[in-house]
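ok trying again, last paste got cut off:
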Amino acid sequence: MDSDFSHQPVLVDEVVELLAPVPEGLLVDGTVGGGGHAAAVLASHPHLSVLGLDRDPVAVAAASARLAPFGPRATVIRARFDHLADAVADAGVTALSGVLLDLGVSSPQLDRAERGFSYRHDAPLDMRMDPDDPRTAADLANQLPEAELARLFAANGEGRFARRLARAVVAARPLRTTGQLADVVRDALPAAVRRHGGHPARRVFQALRIAVNDELQVLADTLPRAVDLLRPGGRLVVIAYHSGEDRLVKAALAEAVTGGCQCPPGLPCVCGAVPAGRLVFRGARRPSPAEVAANRRSESARLRALEWVAPGTGER
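nice, full thing came through this time. structure:
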């Protein structure tokens, strides 16, 4: 299998810095990709080993090759990151020093026309991160009811034109290639809209990709499991690129920090909530202007981090 999966990791210095204080042990890189973040962590932190997960077999091959020089400190397996608890149990580990999730689609997936992720290349309308998954983007574009397509598009920023785009997609069926879909979207939007905000098909492609790979549900299922697996002082570090992802991350971190407390802010907790985490910093960190200039795909990145603490000693 071709293991050429060159990918420039985003916010890599920040990730390495955030993982410096964690206790000795295992870090799960749930989206190991080409192994860029994992290699940087292993090179900088001899007290950590890495278990890398990825659903994409090309990424697994690439990361395995890149991390091979680290010997037994690095293991890469093919698995979706919502299966991290099983992967950790299989590794014989009961608690983690850290979990890293770099969400979204990778540059190699976008740049390889045959994967069908990009509106810039004409190719089969696929978009599966795991090529063994049964459902492709073509299946969704050709089979979903118009109302469901409109809901998907609206959830990804096409509020004003979601219904219009959904009608156009249904009218153009069957759609088989990325080029066909991009043309349908472009022709369905007013000329004034097409001239602003990047490629007119960007949000539609994003919506289908997220749905094909069930990205938001997988993330929602994973975050609380990741928090539960951390040892005291362990950290969860997440890089999100899409507002829907970032909302889920913020909510999961707030749940851990407050223990789910429902009491009014500023008043003593009387609901019995038990905080088990603290935010490493408030808000989200962003790439520097220099990093964005060097890697335009980093521009939308948002990094958040949580540290696990003894239950009852976190923040409200």
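cool. Strands lie at 25-29, 48-54, 74-78, 96-102, 230-240, 277-279, 302-308. The CA atoms of residues 125 and 176 lie 6 Å apart.
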